[in-house]
Amino acid sequence: MLWLAYLAFISLGLPDTVLGVAWPSLRDGFGIPPSAMGAVLGAGLVGYFASGLWAGHAVAKLGVGGLLAVSSALVAAALLGYALAPAWRLFFPMGLLMGFGSGAIDSGLNGYAARHFSVRHVNWLHACWGVGASAGPALMTCAIAEGFGYRSGYAALAAVLGVMSALFLLTRRRWDEPRPGAPDPRAAAAEHGLPLGYREVLARGRVRLSIATFFLYTGLEASVGQWCFSWMRERGALSVEAAGAWTSAYWASLTGGRLVLGLVVDRFGPDRMLRCASLAALLGVAAFTSSGSALGRAGLLLLGASLAPMFPTLMARTPARVGDDVVHHAVGLQVSAATLGSTSMPALAGVLATRWGLGAIAGLLLGLGVALLLSHELLLQLTTRRGRNAT
């Protein structure tokens, strides 16, 4: 199933980054202002967040394979809706369907990967998302440049996701095979009488702390990614081209870090890797926010590389930290928290910059870095205590 998981992560990334490429054509075709993009993004956010909350129950009802098949079909339907929508009022609501399907795929894939694959492969799976995120804009650009228009680009993406849905459907039983030596979450729930409701899941302190850690991580990653261009333009006095290049370098260091660190994470140890990464991330934030010179730019690259293994490695450690019986609920909640962090923290940075100037963002980034380090340390202590109690 590993090969299909790699393909699935690539397909998950494909539609996530194409809106910006299609946007000029959409504006011309529908006669809408630039601010209208917020309607699509807002609809997608609502759908993504809701699907993360629903994913645990969906896995219990449909199984992982069934959830992936249904969710991929929803994304394919949303992309086809983008391609066929004759008016803006019919186009942007498709973002809700897109977000709902994508969030469920994200939760289902991450939950499966966390229980079945090594930390190395989970890191590489998330690097595959970056491959898809890079290929999606290229596909849409080709469709527009060749005169086929954005509708053809969305239709091609819909076809890809439709094929993935069919593959998930054909292999659905294999997705639900328990990992050797680990209990099936649904069987464990039945054996121990666990209701697997969110109230019971959230009663576990490790689950709540893990959710908070994902919120802090994506809040830091996204805030830096959204504001480093403005920071380097104003504080570093860089040209548009140079600031854009360093912004791209930040994201490249994040993707490259997952590929490189995936080679050593199993040997180094996932918890040790996370501890070193969270400390290095704080040092990177400090360097980036303290200087607009070469030190700041070096800090930006250190920050990207140190954040690289955190999301996939935290996800891979979820079963050991929260328990196999609640892993799918926990992963869904973590995905929802990550989505909320990646949107709310950059927005808060904008509010702070508007009121007190761009320098206020430094305080937020440093605060997130410290909170992330402390949150993971506490989570590590609770995990160690759980392991001792289990023995």
Verbal overview:
This protein has 391 residues and is mostly helical. It folds into two domains: 2-177, MFS general substrate transporter like domains (Growth Hormone, Chain: A, Up-down Bundle), CATH 1.20.1250; 198-390, Up-down Bundle (Growth Hormone, Chain: A). It is 84% helix and 0% strand. It is built from 19 helices and no strands. It is globular. The chain starts with a helix and ends with a helix. The model is unreliable at 188-195 (pLDDT under 50).
Beta strand % = under 5%
Indicate the low-confidence ranges by residue numbers: 188-195
The topology string of helices and strands comes to HHHHHHHHHHHHHHHHHHH
Shape estimate: globular
C-alpha termini separation: 32 Å
**DSSP helix fraction:** over 70%
Our Rg estimate from Cα atoms comes to 21 Å
What do we call the CATH homologous superfamily of the largest domain? MFS general substrate transporter like domains
